[in-house]
Amino acid sequence: MDDHSLCRRGLTELLTHRYGIEVVGTTDNGDELTALLREHHPDLLVMDLRMEPVNGLGLLARIRKEGFLTP
Asked: Less Cβ around it within 10 Å: N or C end of the chain?
């Protein structure tokens, strides 16, 4: 998750074409992120920690509290 669409598109292309990783979704919104996590249960989450208006660390705490990440 990144708040810059160009960065999200570039990272998606790199992961997909260079490394063969299936990208199941991208977003710039914390609520959309939790919906994507519920739907896809991904093995990996790539997220920018310096986002607006929700800080990435705050969002990590939120998704951990909801049970998506284990310590």
From this structure: C
Note the Cα 37 to chain centre separation in Å: 8
Tens digits of residue pLDDT in 26-66: 988 888 888 999 999 998 888 888 777 778 888 888 888 98
Q: Indicate the residue type of 49.
A: L
Which helix (H) or strand (E) element contains residue 39? helix 30-40
pTM, rounded to two decimals: 0.75
Q: What is the DSSP string of 20-35?
A: -PPP----S-HHHHHH
Q: What type of residue sits at position 41?
A: H
CA distance 10 to 65: 30
* 54, 10 Cβ separation under 8 angstroms: no
